[in-house]
Write a structure and sequence with these properties.
The complex is a heterodimer of chains A (236) and B (516).
Chain A: E1 4-8, H1 12-24, E2 28-32, H2 35-43, E3 53-57, E4 59-60, E5 63-64, H3 65-75, E6 80-84, H4 89-97, E7 102-105, H5 110-123, E8 134-137, E9 140-143, E10 148-151, E11 154-155, H6 160-171, E12 176-178, H7 179-186, H8 195-209, E13 219-222, E14 226-229
Parallel strand pairs in A: 1-2, 1-3, 3-6, 6-7
Antiparallel strand pairs in A: 4-5, 8-9, 9-10, 10-11, 12-14, 13-14
Helix pairs in contact in A: 6-8
Chain B: H1 2-26, H2 32-49, H3 52-69, H4 82-131, H5 135-150, E1 154-159, E2 171-174, H6 179-191, E3 195-196, E4 208-213, E5 218-224, H7 233-301, H8 307-338, E6 347-349, H9 351-363, E7 371-375, E8 382-384, H10 386-402, E9 410-417, E10 420-426, H11 465-475, E11 479-484, E12 490-497
Parallel strand pairs in B: 7-9
Antiparallel strand pairs in B: 1-2, 1-5, 3-4, 4-5, 6-8, 9-10, 10-12, 11-12
Helix pairs in contact in B: 1-2, 2-3, 2-4, 3-4, 4-5, 4-7, 5-7, 7-8, 8-11, 9-10, 10-11
Classes of the chains: A alpha/beta (236), B alpha+beta (516).
C-alpha cells in the first residue's frame, strides 16, 4: 500500500516538480495551493483514503502554514514536515517544538526530502516496521529493551545520564530533537535553558561512541537547533 | 542695583558730613574763601556718587546753607559784602560745573560699559552657538541670554526643520508663553519681521516679538515680555535682534549642513548599494547561466542524449543551484549583519560540534574528502551563535577547496590561544598576493583572472563570502585574519573571545530517571 502524502505548496513549479518526483518513488500525491484547500482535503479525503504525511509550506496566500500545523496537532499525530524558504533558526526551533516532525529549508535536494519522509513515516508506525526498539547504524547498536549499547560488538558502559540522552535520541532516530526537548525529557522541565549540560554529555557520548569526535558519524549536530541521531540502517 | 545705589548715597552723605564738620571746626582759623574750598571738594565728590539731579540740588542747598551759617550777617540769606556775594555765586557755579563734568564722565563710562557688556554677550553667544549642535540647546541658551539682557520673561520658539511651520508640533518651545503670545510667535516666524512694542507693527502690544533670521529664512522667534515698559527698551532692541539673528543663522547653518551631510550619506549609500547590486547580479548570473543552458539542453535535446550525458547536465544543475543557495545565504547574512542592532542568538556552544557539523556538510561536496579537521581537547565552550560560526567555517572551507589544487588537503583546526579561541582554515594553494590580503575581505572584491588577482589561478570567487566571514567574526567581538601559511597557501584565522570559563560542568544535576 502506498503512502498518501498531502503537499501544501503555493509555488506551481515546485509543486509539480515535487509531485513528479514523489510519484516516481511510489507515493500517492495530493496537492493543495492554499490553507483552505488543504483543510478541505484533510477533512474529506477522497476515496476514503487517509492522509499519512503532510508536506507544509509556511507562507501561503491565505495565511501561515503554522496555523495548520497547530490545528493538526490538536487532533492527531500525523507526520508533518515543514518546507520553507525562511531560514531563521528561531522559527525552525519553534516549529519543531510545536510538533513539526522535521524542517527543510528551500532549496533542498529530493534525496534529502525522501530521507526525512522515510524517517517521519517510520516513527509514526505507519510502515510495516515495528516501533524502534533496536537501533543500528554502522558499528553502533542500541537495544532499548535490554538497556544495552554495543560498539563494534563490544559492550559500552554509559552513565545513566549518557544512556538517557542516547535513548531519547534513539526514539526519534533520524530526526532533529531540539535542545529544549532533550533537556526537558532528560533533565526535567526546569532545565530547558541549560544547553551547556547537553554540550558536556554529548561530548562524553561522542568520546565513547565515535571514532573521531570532531567528525561524528552517529551523533550529529544541527547548529543552533538541536541534535540528530543518524538514520538507522535499513533492517532486513 | 538697589544696594549699589544705597551705598553710593551713603558715600555722598559721608562726604557732605565730613565737609560740614570740617567747616564748623575750622571756621575760627580760616577765612571764608578757604573754608568754601571744602564745600567745592564735597560737591565734586558727591557728584561722583549721586544721581545728576540730586548732586545739582545738593550743591545748591549746600551753597545756601553756607550762606546761612558762615557768610556774615550770619543766620540770614542776605549777603553784606560784595566780595562775599561773588564768592557765593562763583561757589555755586563751580560746584555745578564740576558736578556736571563728573556726571557726564560717569554717563560715558556707563555707556561704554553697557556696550562692552553687550559685545561680550554677543561674543559669548557666538561661542555657545558654535559649540552647541542641537537646536534645543540653542533655544534654551538664547532664552537665558535674552533674559540676562532685559531682565524680563522670555519665550523662544525654534523650527526643527527648514521647511516646517511654526505650529506646536513642528516647533520647539522654550518658556511659558500664553496662547495669545504663542500665536504672536507663530505670526512672527511666518512673516519673518519683528512686531510688538516699538517695532512699528502692532505697536500697542506690551511685548516684543523678534524673528530669528537666517539667510533668507526665519528659523524661529523670541518673545520678550513687557519690552514696552522697559526703560532702555528702545536702545536694547538692536542688541536683542542681533542676538536673535545670530541664533537664526547658526540654526540655518546647522540645518543646512545636516541636510548636506544627509544628502552625501544618501549618495554614498546609493553608490555602495548600486555596486553591491551590480556585483550580486553578476555573481548570480554565472550559475544561472549554467543552470539555464543545462536545463534547456535537457529539455530540447534530452531525447537524443544518452543517460550519462543527461546525468552530467543534471549534476551541473544541482551543483550550480547549491552555489546560488549559498550565495543567497551569504548575501542575506551580510545585509542582516550590516544593520546596527543585529541580534545574535548566542549560547554556550562546543567547537567540536560546530566543526563536526561543518565537516559533515563539506563531505557532501564532490571535493569534500580533502577536508581534515582537528579540535584541540582543551578548548572550552564558546559563547557564540552556532549558525553564524558554522556559516563562517562553511565559507572558509569553500574558499580553501576552490583555490587549492585537487590533491592537497584543506585543514580546519580549532585551538585555544590564551583568552581566544582560534578557528583556522588553511590550504596549500598558491596563496594571496600581499596587496590583496586586506582587499579580499571587502564586499565583492574578487580576484580577476591573471596576475593582478589575489589568487594566481583565481577562478570564480564567492563575492560576498569572505566579507560575510569577517562580519560574523566582528559581530562576535572577534576578528578574521589572513596569514600566509607555513608551507605556502592561505591560513584564515577566526579569533573569537572566550567569555570567561563556560558554566561549571558539575552544575549539571542528575537527570530524572527515564525508562527507555
Amino acid at each position: 500500500m502506498s503512502h498518501r502524502v498531502l503537499l501544501v505548496e503555493d509555488d506551481r513549479v515546485l509543486r509539480s516538480a515535487l509531485r513528479e518526483a514523489l510519484t516516481i518513488e511510489g507515493y500517492a500525491l495530493q496537492t493543495a495551493a492554499s490553507l483552505t484547500d488543504a483543510r478541505a482535503q484533510l477533512q474529506h479525503a477522497p476515496h476514503g483514503e487517509t492522509i499519512d504525511l503532510v508536506l507544509l509550506d509556511l507562507g501561503l496566500p491565505d495565511g501561515e502554514g503554522q496555523a495548520l500545523l497547530a490545528e493538526l496537532r490538536r487532533s492527531s499525530n500525523m507526520p508533518v514536515i515543514v518546507i520553507s524558504a525562511r531560514e531563521s533558526e528561531g522559527q525552525k526551533i519553534r516549529l519543531l517544538d510545536e510538533g513539526a516532525d522535521d524542517y527543510l529549508v528551500k532549496p533542498f535536494g529530493i534525496g534529502e526530502l525522501l530521507a526525512r519522509m522515510r524517517v517521519a513515516l517510520r516513527r509514526r508506525g505507519r510502515t510495516s516496521e515495528p516501533a524502534l526498539l533496536h537501533y543500528r547504524h554502522g558499528p553502533l547498536a542500541v537495544d532499548l529493551k535490554a538497556r544495552r549499547v554495543r560498539l563494534a560488538d563490544a559492550d559500552v558502559r554509559l552513565t545513566p545520564t549518557e544512556y538517557a540522552l542516547l535513548a531519547r535520541l534513539v526514539r526519534q532516530a533520524g530526526q532533529v530533537v531540539t535542545h529544549r526537548h532533550l533537556l526537558a525529557d532528560v533533565w526535567g522541565g526546569e532545565h530547558t535553558e541549560q544547553t551547556h549540560y547537553l554540550r558536556l554529555y554529548m561530548g562524553q557520548l561522542r568520546a565513547k561512541l565515535e571514532a573521531d569526535s570532531a567528525d561524528p558519524q552517529h551523533l550529529l549536530t544541527e547548529p543552533g537547533v538541536g541534535y540528530r541521531l543518524a538514520e538507522p540502517d535499513p533492517t532486513d | 542695583m538697589g544696594n549699589n545705589n544705597l551705598s553710593r548715597t551713603i558715600l555722598a552723605l559721608l562726604a557732605w558730613t565730613i565737609a560740614w564738620i570740617g567747616m564748623v571746626g575750622l571756621e575760627s582759623r580760616l577765612d571764608l574763601a578757604n573754608l568754601s574750598m571744602l564745600l567745592v571738594l564735597a560737591s565734586a565728590l558727591s557728584a561722583l556718587w549721586l544721581p545728576s539731579w540730586a548732586s545739582l540740588v545738593a550743591s545748591a542747598v549746600a551753597v545756601m546753607a553756607f550762606n546761612w551759617f558762615f557768610v556774615p550777617p550770619r543766620l540770614t540769606f542776605s549777603v553784606d559784602l560784595r566780595q562775599n556775594a561773588l564768592l557765593l555765586v562763583a561757589l555755586l557755579l563751580v560746584n555745578w560745573i564740576i558736578a556736571g563734568l563728573v556726571i557726564r564722565q560717569r554717563r560715558l563710562v556707563e555707556a561704554a560699559r553697557t556696550v562692552a557688556a553687550r559685545e561680550a554677550r554677543l561674543r559669548q553667544w557666538g561661542d555657545i552657538l558654535r559649540d552647541a549642535g542641537d537646536p534645543a540647546a540653542h533655544a534654551a541658551a538664547l532664552r537665558t541670554a535674552l533674559q540676562e539682557a532685559t531682565g524680563s520673561a522670555v519665550a523662544v520658539s525654534v523650527l526643527r526643520a527648514l521647511d516646517s511651520q511654526a505650529d506646536d508640533t513642528a516647533a520647539l518651545q522654550v518658556g511659558e508663553p500664553n496662547d495669545e503670545q504663542r500665536a504672536g510667535l507663530a505670526l512672527c516666524v511666518r512673516d519673518g519681521r519683528a512686531m510688538g512694542a516699538g517695532s512699528g507693527r502692532y505697536d500697542g502690544l506690551p511685548d516684543a516679538y523678534l524673528p530669528l533670521r537666517g539667510r533668507g529664512v526665519t528659523m524661529g522667534a523670541a518673545l520678550i515680555t513687557g519690552l514696552a515698559r522697559h526703560p532702555q527698551g528702545h536702545e536694547l532692541r538692536p542688541h536683542l535682534q542681533a542676538l536673535c539673528d545670530q541664533m537664526g543663522s547658526a540654526l540655518h547653518r546647522s540645518l543646512m549642513s545636516a541636510q548636506e551631510q544627509q544628502a552625501r550619506d544618501q549618495a554614498q549609500l546609493q553608490a555602495t548599494r548600486n555596486a553591491l547590486l551590480a556585483a550580486i547580479s553578476h555573481d548570480y548570473r554565472t550559475p544561472l547561466a549554467s543552470i539555464m543552458s543545462a536545463a534547456s539542453a535537457l529539455q530540447e535535446q534530452g531525447e537524443r542524449m544518452d543517460n550519462a550525458q543527461r546525468q552530467l547536465l543534471a549534476a551541473g544543475i544541482v551543483e550550480e543551484s547549491e552555489r546560488l543557495a549559498q550565495l543567497t545565504d551569504n548575501t542575506l547574512q551580510l545585509a542582516r549583519l550590516d544593520t546596527p542592532a543585529v541580534q545574535l542568538r548566542c549560547d554556550w556552544e562546543s567547537a567540536e560540534e560546530i566543526v563536526g557539523a561543518v565537516l559533515r556538510r563539506a563531505r557532501r561536496r564532490p571535493e569534500g574528502a580533502r577536508v581534515r579537521a582537528r579540535v584541540e581537547p582543551d578548548l572550552p565552550l564558546l559563547w557564540c551563535d552556532a549558525t553564524l560560526v558554522s556559516q563562517l567555517l562553511d565559507n572558509l572551507l569553500d574558499n580553501g577547496l576552490k583555490y587549492s589544487p585537487a590533491d592537497t588537503p584543506v585543514e580546519l583546526h580549532a585551538a585555544r590561544d590564551g583568552e581566544r579561541a582560534v578557528l583556522a582554515v588553511s590550504d596549500q594553494g598558491p596563496g594571496i598576493a600581499p596587496a590583496w590580503r586586506e582587499k579580499v575581505f571587502e564586499v565583492f572584491q574578487r580576484g580577476e583572472m591573471g596576475a593582478a588577482g589575489p589568487h594566481a589561478d583565481a577562478g570564480r570567487g564567492a563575492g560576498v563570502g569572505l566579507a560575510v566571514c569577517r562580519a560574523i567574526a566582528r559581530a562576535h567581538q572577534g576578528e578574521l585574519l589572513l596569514r600566509p601559511g607555513a608551507e605556502g597557501g592561505c591560513r584564515f584565522e577566526c579569533r573569537l573571545p572566550l567569555h570567561g570559563e563556560s558554566p561549571p560542568p558539575q552544575s549539571a544535576p542528575t537527570p530524572q530517571e527515564t525508562q527507555p
